[in-house]
Description:
The chain is mostly helical. The chain contains 12 helices and no strands.
Amino acid sequence: xxxxxxxxxxxxxxxxxxxxxxxxxxxxxxxxxxxxxxxxxxxxxxxxxxxxxxxxxxxxxxxxxxxxxxxxxxxxxxxxxxxxxxxxxxxxxxxxxxxxxxxxxxxxxxxxxxxxxxxxxxxxxxxxxxxxxxxxxxxxxxxxxxxxxxxxxxxxxxxxxxxxxxxxxxxxxxxxxxxxxxxxxxxxxxxxxxxxxxxxxxxxxxxxxxxxxxxxxxxxxxxxxxxxxxxxxxxxxxxxxxxxxxxxxxxxxxxxxxxxxxxxxxxxxxxx
Length: 272
């Protein structure tokens, strides 16, 4: 049984990570060939750093991902706190069902519906261009919200309910109790939600395709436009750099989480 579980685990990890390793390998290929590795070279990394169009798309992608993640995290955390404090279980279940709709909907349905909404509102208020950076920001924030809420809610349920009550007894207002006590208890969930929102926004193509304007191109849209002709190997180099950056970010977050858990264990032992 142990042997089968190990084989299954190896297969799963192989399916997940072998394509990424192949991408990294061919980002160092000296030729454009995707069938033969002709030699090790940094050629495509050098070309990447001399391509202004690619860096503009990367900058746009990072700006959009960062702003949508921050806004979704703020709104999502507030929504999670509100949902957690609801007393009526039927209303709470209904709100959770509505919250999960953007997450369960196919991306193409969300993208088309948002495009129609933005065009309708834009025509009502007389805008010359219906789609822009702002429509993409609204769209990305919308589909990121459920992930933030679902990351924060479990931490709110795990939190000791007596902590905010103690803060209120000591003279804090509800707002002060939240920022001085509750937010520290749910911080791991907030960080997880923000990271998930940032990654989903970074990766999104379908919704971006339907809600983007001509003056704001993200990296997935740029790569898609290249597929009509040819995806140049400098995109492999860029994808490798993005993967490395995300890996470093994940490791840093996990290490920080481990340190936070160790501190909590020490405090519990000291109190006992």
